[in-house]
Design a protein that fits this description.
With 129 residues, the chain is an alpha/beta fold. It has helices at residues 12-21, 35-44, 62-71, 90-93, 106-128, and strands at residues 4-8, 28-32, 47-52, 55-56, 59-60, 76-81, 98-101. It has five helices and seven strands.
């Protein structure tokens, strides 16, 4: 079954760069613009990675991240943030799989996603054994 990458990002340029980064064979991307859409898409699709920012439209997403991790423990959350890593609450950092500071080269994000998928694939093989 094909897995999806769910993206909640308000930066139009970054959304475009993420779209261009993957061919349709590499990843199926679903872009959303609200917290409600996040949970709708998580229930509709087989999502393995959730990309988001800590702050969107001047609102902090800490509760959203906590709820996604709690309700969908198989989804790796990757935080893309303009906030310095040292300023992100430790409780949030312990919940996310990885974090990248904006601006970042998209190849860095692609590498993180590939590592998550490789790790997930290895785990599935171990679970099947």
């Amino acid at each position: 079954m094909s897995k999806f990458i769910l993206v909640l990002e308000d930066d139009v340029q970054l959304r475009g760069e993420i779209s261009e980064m993957f061919s349709s064979r590499e990843a199926k991307l679903v872009f959303v613009s609200s917290h409600e859409e996040v949970f709708h898409q998580l229930s509709e699709h087989s999502v393995d990675i959730f990309l988001t920012d800590l702050v969107l439209n001047k609102k902090r997403n800490e509760n959203l991240i906590k709820n996604v991790v709690t309700q969908y423990p198989g989804v790796a959350v990757i935080l893309m943030s303009t906030i310095y890593l040292s300023e992100i609450p430790k409780g949030i950092l312990t919940l996310v799989h990885d974090c990248v500071e904006k601006p970042f080269p998209t190849c860095v994000l692609k590498q993180i996603i590939q590592e998550v998928r490789r790790s997930n694939s290895d785990q599935e093989v171990l679970n099947a054994a």
